[in-house]
Structures are given as structure tokens and as C-alpha cells.
Design goal:
The structure holds 3 protein chains of 3 kinds.
Chain A: E1 15-16, H1 22-33, H2 44-70, H3 81-118, H4 124-127, H5 132-152, E2 167-172, E3 195-199, H6 200-208, E4 212-215
Antiparallel strand pairs in A: 2-3, 2-4
Helix pairs in contact in A: 1-2, 1-3, 2-3, 3-5
Chain B: H1 7-12, E1 16-21, E2 25-26, E3 38-39, E4 44-48, H2 49-57, E5 61-63, H3 71-80, H4 86-89, H5 93-104, H6 108-128, H7 138-141, H8 145-166
Antiparallel strand pairs in B: 1-4, 1-5, 2-3
Helix pairs in contact in B: 5-6
Chain C: E1 3-4, E2 10-11, H1 13-38, H2 47-70, H3 74-104, H4 106-111, H5 113-116, H6 121-141, E3 174-179, E4 183-187, E5 199-202, E6 208-211, H7 212-220, E7 224-226
Antiparallel strand pairs in C: 1-2, 3-6, 3-7, 4-5
The chains are: A mainly alpha, B mainly alpha, C mainly alpha.
Chain lengths: 217, 185, 227
Amino acid sequence: MSCSGGCHLMCSPVKILNMYGRKACQLVKEFASGEKGQLTPFNNDLFEQVVSECSQHHLELQSLIRKMQEEGLDVQTARNADHYGALIHLFSIVRNKRCLTAYVYNRAETVRNLLWKIGPVLPKEIEEKLNHWEEEYFKKHSAALKSYMSKALVDLTVDMVPPKDPYIQVRVLEDIREGIVLSDDKNPNFARHSMHFLKRTDAEKYISRGLMEELTG
Amino acid sequence: MASYYDIDDILVEEEIVSVIFQKAASGVGIDPSSETDFIEAGSKVELPFWLAHELQLRQAVSVNVPPCFNQKTRLEIQADCACVDLRSRCPYFYEFGCKIAPIVGDRTIGFLLLSAFKNRYKEVLTKAHTATIAVGSKFWTILTKEEINLYETAQSAMASFKKWRMGGARFQIASILGRKRKPTE
Amino acid sequence: MGSRSAEGEQVPLTDEYDALISTTDVELLKRAWRNEKAAPEILRFESDLIIRVREQIELMEETVEEKSTVGTDPLSVSLYQMDLDRTLFLLRSYLRIRIQKIEKYMFHIRKTEELWNRLSKDEKFFTERCTDDLKKHLEESVLSTLPENYQSYERQSVISEEVDMVPEPRLDTFVLCRSKEYLTGIQLEDGPVDDRSKLFEMEPDVLYFICYKSIKPLVESGKIDLL
């Protein structure tokens, strides 16, 4: 950190003010670090640290405002060092808020996409990554979508790809014992490695969840 | 703000810029090694863009042109832009440039961005789909985030097109479940 | 005067008329689907069309059912089935694209009268539920933990002059489009401001790549189709 040559009056070293908002940005980076569409476990520790930084900034802001009031200044119009210091704290809270809400909001969006991709029952490996609020939100959103679909009388979670053939060949990858609902009421044995000729719209969900794979050729 | 929750927009604004404080500010912690919490008018400080921007709007600071748009980089871009490692200059070279240009009052940045983008698009991105690029080659390391996004979009469009032409499984396991599934008991 | 099918069966006139109508409706559905897919914002819900399409689908399902029980050859049945499948796909996809747009821009749609009025009754219920759920989620996980002046889900702080936290679709994206008629007087919304006084023209059946904002009203009135 050398000062630029030729300055005589105030040759102060370059200061770095980059601690503010740093942790908040780390949180956002963590979200972005997952592979596309993947969720990282909810980072409670870092989240709490950012929240507490916001409280800290707010205390400092309030104390600066108080100082101005004690000096008899009009807080709305005065533009002294305390005012600019208070602004810096205000912007820091706003920045932290943006990062925190973006973390929650983007995760919520990923959680909603889960509903489309996998359906309303989450596998354990994904559930573990959500915090309590996110699990609640997922349930509520599933209910909202379900309610819409029952009113509209259409299941929108199937038929995600334009129809080519009404039936496709699949191989079962894992034993599927219960909960099989086929639209033609048949009840075949879905044992591992067995192959079936199923209606495309029936098979879609199982394939999406990794329980079956489409066979081609 | 239409892009309030946009991750890239948030990350761009974390880029560090160099400013000169026009007014003093008190009660502000600089880096931990500093003893004082007072920034004098005239101090040169490095701040993240989000803070520099807000302070500049209120005339508290003046913002310097960041090094990634300095004369050296401009000459390199003019000479052989396809090989310039823009990513190490700034991973969000274009977005950052768009945001910083009005703040530093430099009208030439816009032209620089446009010309760099046009040339790199022509030289690098169009060729990427036809030539075979070795994994780990220098190619990837010099692209900015925006260029990589473009590349990936085109890639997935190409892949869909090939699939449509040549057939193959149209249904796949959801990407969020990862590649391998542990067999359930 | 009916028409003859492969087996020499007489198809009564009403079926033929119905077949004509349903083709037009499916074409309309396809067009509505393509527009919705390509447009960055949610478009007007085609309420009447959807009602007719649903009726069509019911009829087709009955036909398929009937033909398979009566023992019609599997090829004919599968032709009817494919027709049904395609229409069902279009309907599902149309509704799904709209629902996903609502999920993405729920706060914006809820607050903007022009957009709110484009929703069906069921979509309105869904949007209200969605916005309540997400708002509550943000409040409980983040906003309630923040200092007092920063707890709004719409404004960054109490000193924000306007709502500045609500995501919106970008209307200045470029779309591929086509017009059936010759259109004049289109004002381009992009490009240097001094160019904007020039008015653009579109020839029929020619593909154009235009900024959506410039042709928004023409898409709404049905004069331009998106691809």
C-alpha cells in the first residue's frame, strides 16, 4: 500500500474498507458454488453472523445519529462526518439484507423447482440440506400447486416433454414396492432390473426420481 | 430493482474499486489493523462497488477507473483480444464495466466493452463449438462469467438439437439428485 | 354426405364439422402456447379457448375409449390417441408455462393491475397463496431478524423512495416474431434515442427479431405471433 507519488499534504496509506458485507457475500457465493440446480446445506452459522452484523451496524448508526442530535444538528439536513459514517452503516445493512434475502429467495426458487422435477416427496439427502422454514415453505407450495391443479383438472407435472410415442420402454433401477399408480390401473411387479412398456406420462415421474431409466434402441 | 435477487448482479457489486473521500466519515471501522475509526477527506480508500456507488451518488467520494480498464489492458485488447485473460482482470468484465462507466464518467469504456465482446465472440465463442477444445486448456481460464454463460447456453441448445436429430433417451433423472443414486434399502 | 375412412365406414356430417372446428381450436391453442412460451411476461388467459379445448379433449377421450372397446384396429385407435396426447400436451404446457411465470414474478404480478387482470380465476387464487407463502417465508427466516427499518419485503429500507425489491421480467429481450398482415408505425424501443422517432414496418410472413417492448401491444391484439 504505497501512496501515489507526488502527493505532499496527506500521504496516507490506502485504506481498505472491505469487511462490511464480506460475510454476506460469502453466503451468496456459497449458494452459487453448488452445481447448477443443486442445493448446499443451509449455512446457519454464517447466516446468523450476518444477521448479528446488521444489529451491530444499526447500533453504530443510532449512536452516530444520537451524537448529531446532542450537538444540536438537524439530522435530516446536516452533512458532517457523523452523517457520512451513519450512511455507510445504513448501506451496509441494506447490502447485508440483499444478500440474506437473496440467499433465502434463490434457495426457495430451487425448492419450488424440486416440486416440478421430483414431486412432493423429497428424498432424505435433499431434505437434510433444507432448514426448518424451507421445509415448511416446500409443503405449503406443494399444497398451493396441488390445489390449483385439482381446480384446473389437469396434472401439470407430467407431459414435460412433447409426446413422440404414447408408450416407452423402461428398466426399473430400484425396487418400487409401494405407491405405484398407473393410469390404466394395471399393477405390474416393479422389481429391480425388470423391464416394462409403460405409458410415457406414468413413467416420467419415476425416471425423474432416478427409479427407472428409459431404454432406447 | 428488477435484478434485486440476481446472484450475478450481487457478485458483480462486490468488486473492489478505489475511491477518494471528498468528505470525512466517522464511526467507521476500516480494516482491523487500523487504530482509528475516522476517514479523513482526501483519503484514498478501497471499497466494494456497492458502497462506492451509493457514496458517489451522494457526492461523498469520487471513484477512480479500476485497473482492469486501464491503458495496459486496452492495448492488449486492441492487439489480440481473443487471447487476453479477461477473467483474471475481472470475472464480470462486461457487467462491471457497464456499472462503472457512468460513475467514473469515462465514455470510452462502453466502446471498449463492445469491441472486446464483438471480437471475442467472433474469435472465441463461435469457434468453441466447432473445434475440439482439450479439457484444461487455456481456453476456459480466460473467459469471463458472461462469456461462459453464453457458451453454456449454446452448448445445451446444441445438445438438445443433436438429441432431437439422433434420438436417444428423452427422459432423465432430475439434475438436483446428482449423478449417482445410492440404492435404497 | 359423410367421408370415408380406411375401412369404408360412413362418418356422419356432424363429426366432420366437429373435426374442422377442433382443428382450428388446436391451431389456436398452439398459437397461444407459442406466444406464451416466447413472451417474457404473462399474456392474457385465453379463457374461452381453453373451455372449448377441454370439451374437445373430453370428446376425444370418449372416442378413444369407444373405439378401443368396439375393437377398432389398433392403428386407428393409436392415431386418435396421438391426437389426444398432442392436444393434452399443449394444454398442460400452456398452463404450466403460465404457472411457472407466476412463480417467478409473483409479487410483481400481484401488484400490477394490468398483469393481474390477465390471470384466470384459478391462477389468481394460486398467485395469492404463493405470494402469502413466500412473503411469510422471507419474513420468518430473514426479515424479522433485521433491525426495525429494514423489515419490508418490498423496500430495502424505509428511506427507499419506491418499491425496489420486486423482481420483474425484462421486456427488452429480443423475440422472434411474424405478422400476418402488413404493419406500419411500430416505434422501436431500443437503440439510440434519436433513432426512435423512425417508425418501423413489418411485412407479412417475414421473420423479424425485435425487442419485445416495441411490439407488446401488437402481440396483445393478436396482430403479431411469437415463435
